[in-house]
Specification:
This protein has 110 residues and is an alpha/beta fold. Helices cover 40% and strands 15% of the residues. It has helices at residues 13-16, 37-47, 56-65, 81-90, 92-100, and strands spanning 3-5, 25-26, 50-53, 71-74, 106-109. The longest helix is centred in the middle third of the chain and has 11 residues, at 37-47.
């Protein structure tokens, strides 16, 4: 599973979670730190990423347009990067099931 972390999340997350989510990346790695959501959406869909964001705009876009890409919506407020990494580690089975579900477009985690 390839996660693409949005600009509102730490660029350290792909490295911190490399064992659980290999080949994941951050939008900064592709010079998209300030890219509009539509550009991130198109890039993720074209390159097989699941978007991970705190931004409800991606959740709404996924519900409106479906997938790809799928969206993991983090509803964690101002959580520390280590807390976000722990959440994603602890919910690995749920995230893998979400990715495999052909009907699911959004997974909200809190």
């Amino acid at each position: 599973m390839r996660l693409l972390f949005d600009h509102n999340l730490s660029p350290r997350l792909p490295t911190m979670l490399a064992a659980e989510y290999p080949d994941s990346a951050h939008v900064r790695w592709f010079a998209m730190a300030s890219a509009p959501d539509a550009s991130v959406w198109t890039f993720a869909a074209a390159n097989g990423y699941v978007i991970v964001s705190k931004d409800s705009d991606f959740e709404q876009k996924a519900l409106l347009h479906g997938h790809p890409p799928k969206v993991v919506w983090l509803r964690v407020g101002n959580a520390a990067t280590t807390a976000i990494a722990a959440l994603l580690r602890n919910r690995l089975a749920d995230i893998l099931a979400f990715e495999a579900d052909p009907a699911a477009a959004v997974l909200a985690l809190a």
